Every structure is written in C-alpha cells, then in structure tokens.
Amino acid sequence: MTDQQLAFQAINEAQLILEEYLRPRPQNHEHILDKLVEVLERPDLVVAVSRLQRQSCLAVPIRTGSGGPIV
Questions:
Q1: Per 3-state DSSP, what percentage of the chain is helix, strand, and coil (rounded to 5)?
Q2: Who's near 62: CB < 8 A, 6+ residues apart?
Q3: pTM (2 decimals)?
Q4: 63 phi and psi, to 5 degrees?
C-alpha cells in the first residue's frame, strides 16, 4: 500500500469514528477517543505521513519576487 493510500485509509477510518462520536445517543467517549488515537498513531501511518510531508516540501518550487514566495 502506498503512503497516500495509508493516509486516505486512516482519514476514512477517523471520519467514521468521528461520526460515531457525533451520534445523538449515550456513548463511551473515552473509548471513541481511544479508537481515534489508535488509528492516527499507527506506526506505519506516522512514517507514511512523515514521508509525504518531506516529499511535499521538496516538490514545492519556491520562487521569490516582488510579491513574495510563489508556489
């Protein structure tokens, strides 16, 4: 699975967890938060997001001129 796929999968899972949190019924908020943290702190996801951030910083051409940086 690519880094982007891992990130998209985690975002989808996080959205489902947040939907559960927003449902108007009695819930265990601590359990829901634990599930969210579990998704977002997966080691493979942390590494993938870090790589994507580095690639993004390296891929953005920055030119300076009278109007400041242009990306």
A1: 70, 5, 30
A2: 69, 70, 71
A3: 0.71
A4: -120, 140
Which two structure tokens, joined as six digits, stand for 26? 């009695």
**40-54 tens-digit pLDDT:** 999 999 999 999 999
Q: How far is CA 15 from CA 39, 52, 70, in A?
A: 11, 20, 33
19 CA to centre of own chain: 16
Residue with tokens 């993004």: 56
pLDDT > 50? residue 71: no
Residue 63 has pLDDT above 90, yes or no: no
Residue 12 tokens, joined: 């989808």
